[in-house]
Design goal:
The complex is a heterodimer of chains A (446) and B (271). By secondary structure, chain A is an alpha/beta fold. Chain A has 10 helices and 19 strands. The longest helix of chain A is centred in the middle third of the chain and has 16 residues. Chain A starts with 13 loop residues before the first strand and ends in a 20-residue tail after the last strand. In chain B, 72% of the residues lie in helices and 0% in strands. Classes of the chains: A alpha/beta (446), B mainly alpha (271).
Chain lengths: 446, 271
């Protein structure tokens, strides 16, 4: 059985309990500083700068519960898992863990490249606490699960990274455990195998196993967790059901560090003051368009001949409020101003919305010309505004804007700004559309 | 704290014997993996060393070791060689152990693993090489038309203090090596000092009387001496002497283990 449970009784008492846990590291410029620190410490003096990776962590996990941990890079997620696993020692506070823990912190890192897959199964199993006999018994099962029996007697240095992970997960999956601790371990490997791994985790959960895991794959967090803990700068910002935490996380994940820290501090203070936002409140807050200063395109690139200047590209609401966090389904303007330094008979103004990976989702251009009388020769400044319904799904997007000359066949840019605006779209929780764009207004099943 | 740690260490020798064996095997395997002749190289190296000693000291210098018993032309060479083999358990372990933990970050940072086993594995690897040397000594004796003495059966007892002494240093240096790169230099230096403070290439009798105490204070002197007694000369070591040496070496091992236990909590922070 995979991750077979030692003891399948589910109880309400916490199986993992952390009380006021903090972790600090010493930071040193060089090795001489470090040596100085050790010598001074022997003499009972403290020396060197402390870096607090975790601060005052309190949480408990009941048996059978699955808890996801999220946070931006460097927020202390991995340190927390290492402390719960018993690999790192907390500088302060109390850590209690009951039951047999198996931690998958880095799959396959313990493999020796020169040894064959089979030898590595034996060795890895022994490291993770299996006896020779146990491993021999499970060897075939492990190899079958990994699906690489053809290569099992080859040195693992010849393996592809996918095969590596397959083998490593298979070994780990055959350990007896009541608590599983997983650090982003499943994000590698081919999709079929990733699915297989998640299936195992679901089974483990079904059997009453406790899981504590870190992932950047928010879909996995939503799918597996009963509860999500959000960490920022080593502190717990909030813990709640996945939807609530993820909504807040979406808000902060693309902000600049300062904005993020401010928001997190505010959020954790709310929790302390008992002013805990209930679910409807959170949605309400999330579903309002607003301007996030932290959301700023770092790839803003402007170019052109200089005869035309594009200024102030931005989004705004119907009542002219500047925003960059839009709510799905609402109507907005994309606005910018252009300044012309000479006369044109006609020109085109355009815009384009893109995904953060650069996929063009939709653009539009409009011809401005003398013949339509839309262009008067003596006016050199215009405000361009595109009115649109935001049908995008949740996510981060970018917008290009540009002005080109009137030639029909090819775009000859007079001025262009690539990644002019970075913006975010929040979908309503009941929205179930997938992909980038929601085309559907309603579904009838008759 | 130490009492618990010590207890868990002793139980671990038994409960995780599979793992210790596997770590030791791996340590040996890793060194020869990829080489076509593999372990044969270890045999060749030791054999060549023995032959060179025999030739140089037997035929060129015609050196004799002032001891009871006639060991023939190979006498001095064998006595020298056996001393080196015995000492190599210590020196080879110490030379490698400084990196044993720091080179296994996975075991320190990613899994819950009894890292105190790593120095033991290093010692076992050194022991493995020494046992090849021992087999060569026995062959050399037979070749010399001498039956290996029955006292060789006492070897496990004779080696016990050597193991304890080596482990003590191995634990200390492996832990220190995690924090300071300088350990490698320190351990090489200490190993060298101990080599010359042990009657391996010279007999104790050649040392001026007033320096004897230095040599006799070194537990390795007695380890090497007892090793030669049981393997070459067919003598049973003085039991009281053995007991006393073992006790001293046990203390060395415990001090090493204590220091290791004090330092190991911070391994994961530093690596």
């Amino acid at each position: 059985m995979l991750f077979s449970k030692e003891n399948s009784s589910i109880s309400e008492s916490p199986i993992i309990n952390l009380c006021g846990v903090s972790k600090s590291y010493k930071l040193f410029q060089n090795n001489r500083e470090r040596l100085k620190y050790y010598i001074l410490r022997l003499l009972g003096t403290n020396y060197g700068k402390d870096f607090w990776a975790l601060k005052e962590i309190n949480f408990s996990v009941s048996a059978g519960e699955t808890v996801g941990i999220i946070g931006v890079n460097g927020s202390g997620k991995s340190t927390l898992l290492q402390i719960v696993s018993g690999i790192l020692e907390a500088t302060d506070g109390k850590v209690q863990v009951k039951g047999k823990v198996v931690s998958l912190l880095e799959l396959g890192a313990g493999f020796s490249p020169e040894f064959t897959g089979r030898e590595n199964i034996l060795f890895n199993g022994a490291i993770l606490g299996m006896s020779q006999k146990e491993i021999r018994l499970k060897e075939k099962e492990i190899i079958d699960f990994s699906g690489i029996e053809d290569f099992i007697d080859q040195p693992v240095r010849t393996y592809s990274s996918g095969m590596y992970v397959r083998l490593a997960f298979s070994v780990a999956a055959h350990l007896d455990a009541s608590i599983l601790i997983i650090d982003e371990a499943l994000s590698v490997g081919d999709e079929a195998f990733v699915r297989k791994c998640y299936k195992r985790l679901e089974d483990f959960k079904q059997e009453g196993g406790t899981i504590l895991f870190v992932s950047h794959a928010l879909s996995a967090i939503t799918a597996l967790s009963d509860r999500v803990i959000l960490l920022n700068k080593g502190r717990i910002v909030m813990q709640d059901i996945p939807r609530v935490v993820l909504n807040f996380y979406h808000k902060i994940s693309n902000s600049t560090e300062k904005v993020r820290n401010d928001m997190c501090t505010k959020k954790s203070l709310e929790a302390i003051n008992g002013d805990d936002t209930d679910i409807s409140n959170t949605y309400h807050e999330a579903a309002r368009a607003w301007f996030d200063k932290g959301l700023k395109s770092e790839t803003y690139t402007s170019y052109g001949s200089g005869e035309v200047i594009i200024a102030e590209p931005h989004f705004c609401t119907m009542d002219e409020k500047k925003v960059n966090v839009l709510v799905q389904g609402d109507t907005y303007f994309l606005k910018y101003r252009i300044k012309l330094s000479r006369e044109y008979n006609n020109f085109k103004v355009g815009m384009l919305l893109k995904s953060s990976s650069g996929i063009e989702l939709g653009g539009y251009f409009s011809i401005v010309s003398n013949s339509d009388n839309t262009l008067s020769a003596h006016i050199k400044e215009y405000e361009v505004s595109f009115k649109f319904i935001c049908n995008l799904n949740s996510g981060v997007y970018f917008s290009n804007v540009g002005v080109s000359d009137g030639s029909i066949d090819k775009a000859n840019y007079l001025a262009r700004v690539v990644d002019a605006i970075m913006f975010k779209v929040i979908a309503l929780p009941e929205n179930t559309s997938t992909g980038y764009v929601n085309f559907i207004q309603s579904v009838d099943i008759v | 704290m130490l009492k618990n740690e010590l207890f868990s260490l002793i139980t671990m020798f038994w409960t995780r014997r599979d793992l210790i064996l596997m770590l030791s095997r791996r340590e040996i395997d890793l060194r020869y993996k990829g080489a076509g002749l593999g372990i044969v190289w270890a045999i060749i190296a030791l054999l060549v060393q023995l032959l060179i000693f025999t030739f140089i000291f037997g035929f060129i210098f015609k050196t004799r070791w002032p001891v009871e018993g006639n060991t023939g032309i190979a006498g001095y060479a064998l006595i020298l060689f056996s001393g080196l083999v015995c000492f190599s358990v210590f020196s080879e372990t110490i030379s490698r152990v400084g990196l044993s933990i720091i080179s296994a970050p996975y075991l320190v940072k990613k899994v819950i693993f009894p890292v105190e086993l790593l120095p033991i594995a290093s010692m076992n690897a050194a022991l493995f090489h020494a046992s090849i040397g021992l087999v060569l000594i026995i062959f050399a004796l037979v070749f010399n038309l001498q039956a290996p003495p029955l006292t060789i059966l006492l070897l496990p007892f004779v080696l016990l203090p050597l193991f304890l002494f080596t482990l003590g240093f191995a634990w200390f240096f492996s832990a220190l090596g995690v924090f300071l790169k300088d350990t490698q230099f320190l351990s090489t230096l200490i190993s060298q000092l101990l080599f010359y403070a042990t009657p391996i290439i010279y007999p104790l009798d050649m040392v001026p009387e007033n320096f004897h105490w230095i040599i006799l204070l070194n537990p390795l002197t007695h380890c090497v001496d007892m090793f030669r007694q049981v393997v070459l000369f067919g003598l049973v070591p003085n039991i009281l002497n053995w007991f006393f040496i073992t006790l001293v070496c046990f203390v060395v091992a415990m001090v090493g283990f204590y220091l290791f236990s004090r330092m190991k909590h911070e391994f994961a922070d530093v690596i």
